Amino acid sequence: MSTIKKVVLAYSGGLDTSAIIPWLKENYDCEVIAFVADVGQGEEELVGIEEKAIASGASACYIADLKEEMVSEYIYPSLKTGAMYEGKYLLGTSMARPIIAKAQVECALEVGADALCHGCTGKGNDQVRFESAFAALAPHLKVIAPWREWDLRSREALLDYLAERKIPCTASLEKIYSRDANAWHISTEGGVLEDTWNQPNELCWVWTVDPEQAPDQAETVTLMVEKGEVTAVDGQAMSPYQVLTTLNEKGSRHGVGRIDIVENRLVGMKSRGCYETPGGTIMMEALRGVEQLVLDKDCFEFREELGLKASHLIYDGRWFTPLCKSILAAADELAEAVTGEVVVKLYKGQATVVQKRSINSLYSEEFATFGEDDVYDHSHAGGFIRLYSLSSRIRALNEKKQK
Amino acid sequence: MSTIKKVVLAYSGGLDTSAIIPWLKENYDCEVIAFVADVGQGEEELVGIEEKAIASGASACYIADLKEEMVSEYIYPSLKTGAMYEGKYLLGTSMARPIIAKAQVECALEVGADALCHGCTGKGNDQVRFESAFAALAPHLKVIAPWREWDLRSREALLDYLAERKIPCTASLEKIYSRDANAWHISTEGGVLEDTWNQPNELCWVWTVDPEQAPDQAETVTLMVEKGEVTAVDGQAMSPYQVLTTLNEKGSRHGVGRIDIVENRLVGMKSRGCYETPGGTIMMEALRGVEQLVLDKDCFEFREELGLKASHLIYDGRWFTPLCKSILAAADELAEAVTGEVVVKLYKGQATVVQKRSINSLYSEEFATFGEDDVYDHSHAGGFIRLYSLSSRIRALNEKKQK
Amino acid sequence: MSTIKKVVLAYSGGLDTSAIIPWLKENYDCEVIAFVADVGQGEEELVGIEEKAIASGASACYIADLKEEMVSEYIYPSLKTGAMYEGKYLLGTSMARPIIAKAQVECALEVGADALCHGCTGKGNDQVRFESAFAALAPHLKVIAPWREWDLRSREALLDYLAERKIPCTASLEKIYSRDANAWHISTEGGVLEDTWNQPNELCWVWTVDPEQAPDQAETVTLMVEKGEVTAVDGQAMSPYQVLTTLNEKGSRHGVGRIDIVENRLVGMKSRGCYETPGGTIMMEALRGVEQLVLDKDCFEFREELGLKASHLIYDGRWFTPLCKSILAAADELAEAVTGEVVVKLYKGQATVVQKRSINSLYSEEFATFGEDDVYDHSHAGGFIRLYSLSSRIRALNEKKQK
Amino acid sequence: MSTIKKVVLAYSGGLDTSAIIPWLKENYDCEVIAFVADVGQGEEELVGIEEKAIASGASACYIADLKEEMVSEYIYPSLKTGAMYEGKYLLGTSMARPIIAKAQVECALEVGADALCHGCTGKGNDQVRFESAFAALAPHLKVIAPWREWDLRSREALLDYLAERKIPCTASLEKIYSRDANAWHISTEGGVLEDTWNQPNELCWVWTVDPEQAPDQAETVTLMVEKGEVTAVDGQAMSPYQVLTTLNEKGSRHGVGRIDIVENRLVGMKSRGCYETPGGTIMMEALRGVEQLVLDKDCFEFREELGLKASHLIYDGRWFTPLCKSILAAADELAEAVTGEVVVKLYKGQATVVQKRSINSLYSEEFATFGEDDVYDHSHAGGFIRLYSLSSRIRALNEKKQK
């Protein structure tokens, strides 16, 4: 093992990263700095976290509030592309990784560390996302991934490891479901979900109410969209993070934003998860609603292609690449016109745009309907069709001739 | 106007095509054959249609039952691609046009007609779809599109036109909403929908119950999928058309398959419609569920690209083109593995896959979860990540060196 | 015909637009302003053009020098995308149309005209390019396309038309080949080219020497590329237009940049042309050479996709659309790294990059070759391959099990 | 190291695989079967190869003649897609790997081996291509990649290794360039090429004459193309492999098919190579020539997209995947119409189609030229343009209104 003096660990306060602190010190004989990213995972996870880190052996613990930045610099740009991984997943976990990695790198540079460490397992996507960001942002720093090195293979082993070292830990032995949360989403994996023929049960959902238990009364919410970004809710101007938390609250109440998906991990195998993205689902629906009014046919199709591409880039941890910049620049350009207002109805698990309008709307009652107008003459269509189908006609005449 | 002796009209029995028959005879001095395509638009539209056609002046009326063929030869192949126009629309009207046009051409060739006629308006997509099919299948036949020729400009004018000729007609003067139906879907346009800031009202929906009025009790339905096609419902093997009608019935009862969309027409303007595709929505959800199990990452992405492309081809009336054949061939190949069983839950407007399994499933509890296994070693990930992020690393080292 | 008071005509001084001036005055009873765009079509076409326009009946003639702007604002951005229409065509005619149309619109707004006119025929692409630009830039101005209106159907008819009006014209009766030129390219259509089984003859090529007659001695030229733009030739810093003319001269001498293509026109039929783009071919080759050094695998692939898309947008006259802006923004982002130096060898019709280097080069002798190094360890590959082929492995194991 | 009894080695007779035989026996204590694939790499490499293998310690040596199969089952399908990796590379090495791997697997299954071995280095693409094929075709067999295991790090070490074991070997100590050849191409890497600022020298090219030394007299060759496959040369019907060798001979004589490229390897770094594909370059040019006649605009664009995708699939060793099957099926469908005849001119390094014709040609002198005809009316264009640019017009009117 190479010589390392000071390592900055992405620390969550959970069982894994608690064990990593002493393990790093023992195996690398180095100082460990705990870095905590506040991405809206919830107060309960942050309370007393500094004390916990120190008690586990960290020489310092830094907490960075990344909540607003995550929404404005990562989530909003992604939403403009319309990225949904494999048609469904709003990329909740993926979206948080680059911003955490970037802040962790900044911390490492500041404290003069020579290594970075994360607690991601060796079968997941997150290790790739963290380490791809590290490679792009600080290629000279060493990376330690304990889960690919140590021989601790179970919660029991980890708890024993901590107990042996008399490091206090409140984690329970039994933990059926593994979860990840940030302001944008919460994910649940494991337990009954491991058999795809099982239905999710009530333990698979955390934030949102079961649609069947949601209010019988629908609720509407009005969103103001400016250049592809939600800027106000129900007439109230808000920061991006405020928009998200406000919509999370409303969406959760109506069971909005649940998906149960078997997805392709970047590392080659499939996994199943239940994801909740209540606010995100509402925003996505709202943006697409405004787009219906303002994007022409070709722009809409390209936006869909961009979303498909972006979904893979983001899922695969390629945020800090020239390709991602290029895709985001293209989406940003399309979003220039995406300004308008939509009313979204929330009811029993669904968010549906029921009203929409925009100063950039290409829809015109006058043009679309039956009668004559200035910009469109029925007779134009004849010529259009003739040219539009000309190659089919020539091909068919050709084939006829050959017979 | 060129000389035409016999024309085959795509006849629906409605006001427009009823007026077209005498108009054709008067303006082209030709024999008119009414051709009726039964694509599952409903018995009420077909009852007495032959008599009606004759009473309007047609010399003959042929009715072709295209229901099974439409589902098996047009809808099923489209579903394999995953085509949803502009992210939402299951292409209900679009899908019916090529099969009607093809059968109409066959009728024309059989009766020795020298022209084809349709009743589509000059601002819509359907004229393009019909005439593109005609160009590909019978480029030597003349095409007459009365709506682009005559000066009848309102329902009142059409009713007067018929009355003057003493042709009986039961159509009412007032018709706020224009609708199109076939086994796959029903669409509603006009009325309150013409202002995008208006919510749809109860007149905008025909087949499906309002989700808010749907049963409080969810229902599940089990679908068997073989090579991308639904072959059985709740254990009962069925023909494609039977599958569709069975699922239409179930879906409608739970308010499943409604969309309210502003879409880009092929002819350059936007229009708004409320579409209901209850059975189709369930099938689409079911197929995507099986795909989650059997398609790998790259296949899934390509299937999504094919769906995007196919959605435009089908919407734009390019079914009978080599490009469409090529896209369908690609999708067919991917669908080879799409075999499995899914349970779909219907509740208050939603169809959600809650259970799924497949003999071709690439998901494996053993591979996805925490522990070691034969095919995957945690340590593999280290090398993977290193190579995966190599260009980022080289780029970053390069940039560092330049500073 | 609607009332028009003053029309601005895109005037070339050739036979067609010379006849259009009196035709417009007679048929629209309006004032005609001749607008001449200097896009580098050559001095001989511009000499005395103002007098000619006045003699033909124009009330004024404005000449705009668009040469530098065309190269810097249209050609350079296009080159960053790598756009080659149908794999071969550097879009010489297409690229000039939007800039001419834009300047023509500006002229019309300045002189207070109420209409725009062009001399493009009714079977070509240029009418679409002009009128699409007009629609985007000045939708309120009327557009007159005489070739789609008048009944003049031959050069003879046009010459007679002018002679009857005693308008002097030096055009000859016989003109076998039709050509279009600007600083970027010259095209030749018609004559022997109308049969695809004919070889082009010496009349089909204008600027470039026949490769078989080109110097037996190869020549090299060194290009400096900065952010995707050629900024210096053989050590000499130059403006974009100077770069182009310098390379045109060099390329022509060696027979570089000829293509003989049957292409799909936007209006549905195919046409054949011989195009010469000597300088452009050298630049394209040079840019792609630098890209080989600096773009990673995914970026290179996306750049190719952008080029494919851009080739259609530009060919189809969709320059002034949000989609085009979006594509160009994406390409611009990728071009950020495209800085370097290349040596291009010119020999008997070919331009080949033989040397290349870049400060952003991701190529490293150290990494690519046999030995060990810091950033890459042979053993990493084992893990990479294992994960890379994991889904194939699982699929194959699955199939084995099923047997 | 796991227990292995019998391993089948992809044996070339070169230094590396000669050393691998004893190394396998010593390190795995197993029987080694040498498998030689004849993919047209040349007689000189095959002469006495069986004796050599036995002398090195192999218990048996099997030679499979894959030449015809390689061209008909791998190269021809690839050519239909138009695949050129990173715009230039005809995938010469990539294309041979899957067929070798497949035959090697078949050999292994026949002789009852439990492992497969290849001699690819740990920094290249070929290891991935071989092992991806193995994973798809025989996931149960172990794979041994000595270059990632042993500590032999130079030609000298390998020669010493063989000498110590008294295994005869004619390989020289000094070998500046590394080459790979099959019927389709020969590649050269290393030496002066390692600095991208160096020009290739005469040692970098093996098959083809220097264009500057090629005949001053151009030569033409006539190719018959049927459904995307070259079936005859100069009037002579030939098997695919015969076509290839015939065109290789002709192309080489004129210096056709050289490229000098810096490419992105799959494993993350860039490498530079000089590749010669004389026959392939002629065929590619010929196929694209016929396509110009028979593919409409949309088909041509999709074929280009397929080529782009296929280039990555083939380069990346993903031949035996459902995605590759899907792409090839799509290309096959498009190739249905690609039938015709072309004359290709060979001159000083270039292959240029100078004549082309096809019974499926959509080109028509009548349609493309000036005059009126039956299928196209000048006036159609007006309507086409109006609708084509409608969204631009509505957008622009909208913007005007907002001012």
How would you portray this structure in words?
Four copies of one chain form a homotetramer. Chain A is of the alpha/beta class. Chain A has two domains: 160 residues, 3-Layer(aba) Sandwich (Rossmann fold), CATH 3.40.50.620; 138 residues, Alpha-Beta Complex (Argininosuccinate synthetase, chain A, domain 2), CATH 3.90.1260.10. In chain A, 43% of the residues lie in helices and 20% in strands. Chain A is built from 14 helices and 14 strands. The first copy, chain A, has a five-stranded parallel β-sheet, sandwiched between helices. In chain A, strand 6 and strand 7 form a beta hairpin. In chain A, helix 4 packs across helix 10. The mean pLDDT of chain A is 94.
Number of helices of chain A: 14
> Could you name the CATH homologous superfamily of the largest domain in chain A?
HUPs
- Encode the helix/strand succession of chain A as letters: EHEHHEHHEHEHEEEEEHEEHHHEEHHH
How would you describe the oligomerization state of the chains in this entry? Answer: homotetramer
Strand order in the sheet with the most strands of chain A: 3-2-1-4-5
Structural class of chain A: alpha/beta
Largest chain-chain contact? A-B, 100 and 100 residues
> What share of the residues of chain A lie within helices?
40-55%
Overall mean confidence score, pLDDT of chain A: 94
Distance between the termini of chain A: 76 Å
Using the 3D structure, state the CATH architecture of the largest domain in chain A: 3-Layer(aba) Sandwich
Shape of chain A: elongated
Profile the largest sheet of chain A.
5 strands, parallel
Count of all domains of chain A: 2
Named CATH topology of the largest domain in chain A: Rossmann fold
Strand content of chain A: 15-25%
Specify the CATH class of the largest domain in chain A: Alpha Beta
What is the β-strand count of chain A?
Answer: 14
Q: What Rg of chain A do the Cα atoms give?
A: 25 Å
Unreliable spans of chain A are none
